[in-house]
Amino acid sequence: MLFAGQETIFASQKSVIHSESRGHLALHAFLSPPCCGIIGLFVPWMTTRFRIEGSAAMPTDIKFLGHASFQIEIAGKTVLIDPFLTDNPVASTSADELSADAIILTHGHGDHVGDTVSIARRTGAQVIANFEIVGWLNGQGIENTHPMHIGGSHVFDFGTVKLTIAHHGSGLPDGSYGGNPAGVLLTTDDGTLYHAGDTALFMDMQLIGEAGIDLAILPIGDNFTMGPDDALRAVEFLRPKRVVPVHYNTWPVIEQDAAAWAERVAQEKSVQAIVLQPGESTEL
Ligand code: NI
Ligand code: MN
Questions:
Q1: In 10 A of CB 103, how many CB atoms?
Q2: How far is the CA of 24 from the centre of ligand 2 (A)?
Q3: What is the pLDDT of residues 199-254, one digit of tens each?
Q4: What is the domain count for the chain?
Q5: Residues around ligand 1, an ion, CB closer than 5 A
Q6: Ligand number with the minimum distance to the CA of 169
Q7: Which of 30, 106, 198, 202 has the fewest CB atoms within 10 Å, counting from its CB?
Q8: Secondary structure, 3-state, 167-187
Q9: How far apart are CA 181 and CA 196, in angstroms?
Q10: Residue 31 located in a structural domain
Q11: Which domain holds residue 120?
């Protein structure tokens, strides 16, 4: 409530500053041109200052739902990434309890497409995925979709989504072709998040890191994806401010010691690793 109140005050102050500044600018343009330089510096400074304080009141909240599933709250919108809950032994919630405005899928495997069809059907959420997965969803009666592909970005009302390469498979649960797997770069007013999807380590993570990543979500489970050693190198290539390990401990075959990995990330790469238990959140 405190934050909500502050947001309102900042919003009204911002509009007052804007309208007064416009008036002064118009006046000075006629009366004393040299003053415009000072006001020209002052107005962007005030606007920036209040935008920063306003966004601090509503940070992007990133909740781990277990395995590689996330629920992200951005500016009043709920965005799910890879919502796999029903058959997920470590899921923190059931699919029926989730609301969603948008669902982003990294690839077609069952532990990523998960409950997308039922959630999209119930909530009407728009599903964002590669062209082939979107075609498969349309065939199941999910019409509110947005097809994309690797290298492309698109501006949505919650932020900008860009699909990046990932080295993996993407076959759909019924055996249909699911195109190529992807990672997701999501840029909001609060910063940039990179969900690597399921992938091996690759050198082009250096290129992806040039976007300036505030939070990287990386698989560490080994067997199907990068293991701890390669994920450590991924941190080196991506240079994120913080990193969250995922895709481990869901089943015995991908068992890992995430706390030990987080310690290595801090010691060897000087990057903060945040180990989230299913149901826990961090901020962007
Ligand atoms: Ni996969
Ligand atoms: Mn997977």
A1: 29
A2: 58
A3: 999 999 999 999 999 999 999 999 999 999 999 999 999 999 999 999 999 999 99
A4: 1
A5: 109, 198
A6: 1
A7: 30
A8: CCCCCCCCCCCCCCCEEEEEE
A9: 10
A10: no
A11: 61-279
